Amino acid sequence: MSAHVKYSIVIPVYNEEEVIYETYKRLKRVMDSTGEGYELLFVNDGSRDETVSILKECSGIDQSVKLIDFSRNFGHQIAITAGMDYAAGDAIVIIDADLQDPPELILKMIEKWKEGYDVVYAKRTQRKGETFFKKQTAALFYRLLRASTDIDIPLDTGDFRLIDRKVCEEMKRIPEKNRFVRGLVSWVGFRQTAVEYTRDERLAGETKYPLKKMLKLSMDGMTSFSYKPLKLATYTGGLLSLAGFIYMLVVLYLKLFTDSTVTGWASIIIIQLLFSGIVLLLLGVIGEYIGRIYDETKDRPLYIVRECYGMEPKSRKVQGSVKHG
Fold first, then answer.
1. b vs e for 279-308, b when ≥16 Cβ sit within 10 Å of the residue's Cβ?
2. How many domains does the chain have?
3. Is the pTM of this model over 0.70?
């Protein structure tokens, strides 16, 4: 194997003991077929099972396997960011460890990269093993995000992609705390293209993106690349104020110029509750943006590395202290 690292494969992992060794074998088989230098860079995001032990064993017998071990769980998007910080390759591939995204597709990505593309993202044409609810909500999210932002974020794509070294360097300059990596890759630009594939079921284990985490990822995407929800709050507030003013004029007219009695206290209460609910919802939207501003001002490191295996630790502003194992 060449001493020069041509490809860095970044694999965030969290409690993947049932599948991680098979993931390693498939990735190794695919990357060996290229005949070029590579590294398999696993980022352990606070796993509580035997994932780290398995990866330590792999690192001990295979020098291409490298491990970044977080001090705790910092989140999938942060783990991807750490992998890009440490990656040494001319091209960096991001892929999850659950084998829903086929490692064999990396070879097609490499072909596109050698044609001159700087970003090659995998676009799902079919999603096996996922519920109807998850498929529909994911489709709705991507379309809402595209409609609400000026950034062209491709539909039906995840984080599975190849990025060129210069794209990676630009990504490292972005210090955002609430990260939406696929959106940031679109934001930096450069020449981008897609390769299509069918997403498989998980080989083993359970999804690491339950509804709660999906909602947070969706909120991070919306607030990072669009301020239209704030405009919506303004427009909705204006419409509600106008409706309330018109209703006040109607009530005053009935009271002063007609003999009819203003009745319907139940309906008034319902309207009041409705308006109050909408106002609180809009305040929540504004609060999400304020919360993200607060996160940015704290200037804490994105992640803290406990140990590194098979590589030297790096010093960077977004990191904490590390220990070399």
1. eeebeebeebeeebeeeeeeeeebbebbbb
2. 2
3. no
